[in-house]
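Entry 14. Structure prediction run on the chain below.
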Amino acid sequence: MTDSVAKASPPRATRVHGTVRIVGAGLLGSSIGHALRALGVDVVLHDASPSQLRLAIDYGAGRAVQGDDSPSLIVVAVPPDVTADVIQEELERFPGAVVTDVASVKLEPLRTLQERGVDLTHYIGSHPLAGRERGGAIAARADIFVGRPWVVCRDAGTPASDLALVEGLALDLGAMPLEMSPEEHDRSVALVSHVPQLVASLLAGRFVDAPDGSLRLAGQGVRDTTRIAASAPELWVQILDANAAPVVDVLDALAADLTSVADALRTPDAPGARRAIADTIRRGNEGVERLPGKHGQNRRFEQVVVMVDDRPGQLGRLFGELGELDVNVEDLRLEHSPGAQFGLAEISVVPSAVRRAVEGLEARGWKIASTTND
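Output returned:
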């Protein structure tokens, strides 16, 4: 071997120590396994489905149980309707381990365990706000947690060392741990996750009987709005059932807003009707402004839309020339028009870089379709 051959870098130090047992080898469980193994952590996988378990192991998410494995941390990544049962089983089987779960609802499993009288000293509920439209071990990725919030639900009796281990798991995987109560978590995800899923599904459901001609007009906006409508119904029935009350609260408020807009549109010439419609759009503007942007910041970016020929290497060339112009791409969205031989690359940049990006790209032969201020 010559000196020019690069040597593999040793895994960096981790906050998680010992063996990590992951129960549930689906998307989240396998993704956690991949990320930990990349850091050199010993990962043991268990799943009620032998085929799912073998698939996850074959893909490298962890190893099979070998005799008397003694995990320091157990991650329960199973469907919501069996989360409490599995947490109880793991706490009783491994009393020396810290147990967390990654279910998207936190209050119902906790109440179930409390009603059963389970010793919850070493249990800490958590939830990474990460995922994909596709599920299962085959869709798992080690990087889906990077930069994403990871809610940790501690209580007054949580040992500091246990809390450090669960938060360390989030940090090791590149996530941002946030402490919340189970009640606060469930209200929050009802607003930013569960109701958006229903809204996307309801809107996409209107496409089922729509004329083909109408759907041919669909652009990137409607695709963005309905992207999560491709999610698995079986899982979402469980999630929505477990968090029904907070979801209903948001749906009732949203239904009232929809009724108000519909009434204004029925009589657009009535006094105040146009203002009601304008206020609806304006309030949406204000809400979007509150959403955290890159790295969790509330910093706003401007958009430069560039026409990109549908040929190999064009996006790479665009990014390379933006780099030469010292313009950082903060975000990117691609839109392809049906039948067109080009796409539109919507590049998000800091406001101070807009002019430099536009003038520099045009000088290099790129066609600018629009900017935010057009």
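The radius of gyration is 24 Å.
Filed with the rest of this week's runs.
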